[in-house]
Amino acid sequence: MHYILEILPSLLAGAGMTLKIFIWTLIGSLPLGLVVSLGLISNIKPLQWLLHFYVWLMRGTPLLLQLIFVFYGLPLIGIVFPRYYAALFAFILNYAAYFAEIFRGGLQSIDSGQYESARVLRLSYGQTIRKIVIPQVIKIVLPSVGNEVINLVKDSSLVYVIGLGDLLRAGNVATARDVTLIPLVLVGVIYLLLTAVTTFVLGRIEKHYSYWK
Amino acid sequence: MLELKNITKRFGDRTIIKDLNLTVRDGEILSIVGPSGAGKTTLLRCITGLERVDGGQFLVDGQNFEPYTNRANESVIGVVFQNFELFPNLTVLQNITLAPTLVLKQSAETAKQQALELLTRLDLADHANQYPFELSGGQQQRVAIARALAMKPNVLCYDEPTSALDPNLRQEVEKLIMGLKADGMTQIIVTHDLTFAENIADEMFRVEPNQD
């Protein structure tokens, strides 16, 4: 017990980094993913190709590679990010691609009749998207987005590779130093708590949207 | 008065409508009837601006009018879709007030007032704060009518207004349409139901499948 209290501060500091990456990645990648998905379903062919390429690139290569590429690779051509921003940059680009595909699915499941009825009421495209389409898409995509959000809690542990002190790294350091399993078990428990809270919040959001069908 | 002159519509190299002429007088009910595949719905989609015509012109009170690009401030055509296409994420009241506030720039208060009057007239006053999924088909249709009327159209169009409803609701729909006619509304009704069409229409327009 004494030992747990001793290492807890460093684990919690690591959990703080995990949370920071988690939250900023969501704040960055959800809106970006929405914009990309609108581009994916647009009629502008070159834009579509470009965005399909981007999605393919992001989903087709390991996130770990992307992190290494941004932090260790880009400086070779003169683009230098501090560690933390390199991590956010890679995570936001990666998750936005996944979210874009989820949103695209949601957008395409909206019946064309909805666009037509908005059109005969002479709503503009922007008004239709904002008032009619997006609220319906959010409801449809919530379960899939929830999956990705939970994944993100755990994926954030990949930042150890560029030397950021997140939760997993804190536990790993303690285990190596003190030769005991306890830190790793604690790390597992803290991840479970984080995902439990996330699951709970997601459930509440889904419930909030259940007032219509 | 709405006039269609030499309207032609093609999909690829298939001509669906060829040199069609049609006049709808103010306050009258025109039924467009014909076998399925004849182009009734396509014709309605051209009138309501959901399809661009390949030739011919539309006149409203003698003035040229292009439904496909119409973004002017007066509403000319209102539409009640076969499946109503209410917005499921909005309440009945919000469904009706959305376009008047966003497009006609009515104040929220005016739009609400007007929507409530329409709802009362269509016997839906108690349902203002419900969501579409909570309503029956007939009620949803009346909301769709109220939503179209709130934009103050010159002509109200219906695509198969009886097909998504219980057969015994047909009389209700007839009453509703005759009620709007009594208020002076010009209406165009696409239907494959001949009895229904004969009961309500001042004019019948038969669409036959184009032979070439």
UniProtKB/TrEMBL annotation, chain A:
PROSITE patterns with a match to the protein in the record: ABC_TM1
InterPro entries from the UniProt entry: AA_ABC_transptr_permease_3TM (IPR010065), ArtM/GltK/GlnP/TcyL/YhdX-like (IPR043429), MetI-like (IPR000515), MetI-like_sf (IPR035906)
Keyword Transport: yes
Origin: domain of life: Bacteria
Every ABC transmembrane type-1 domain range: 15-202
Keywords, in A-Z order: Amino-acid transport, Cell membrane, Membrane, Transmembrane, Transmembrane helix, Transport
Pfam families, A to Z: BPD_transp_1 (PF00528)
Chief place where the protein resides: membrane
Protein known as: Amino acid ABC transporter permease
Phylogenetic classification of the source organism: Bacteria, Bacillati, Bacillota, Bacilli, Lactobacillales
UniProtKB/TrEMBL annotation, chain B:
Alphabetical keyword list: ATP-binding, Nucleotide-binding, Transport
Pfam families associated with the record: ABC_tran
UniProt GO molecular function: ATP binding
Keyword Zinc: no
Membrane among keywords: no
ABC transporter domain boundaries: 2-211
Similarity comment text for this entry: Belongs to the ABC transporter superfamily.
PANTHER family: AMINO ACID IMPORT ATP-BINDING PROTEIN (PTHR43166), PHOSPHONATES IMPORT ATP-BINDING PROTEIN PHNC (PTHR43166:SF4)
Protein name, as recorded: Amino acid ABC transporter ATP-binding protein
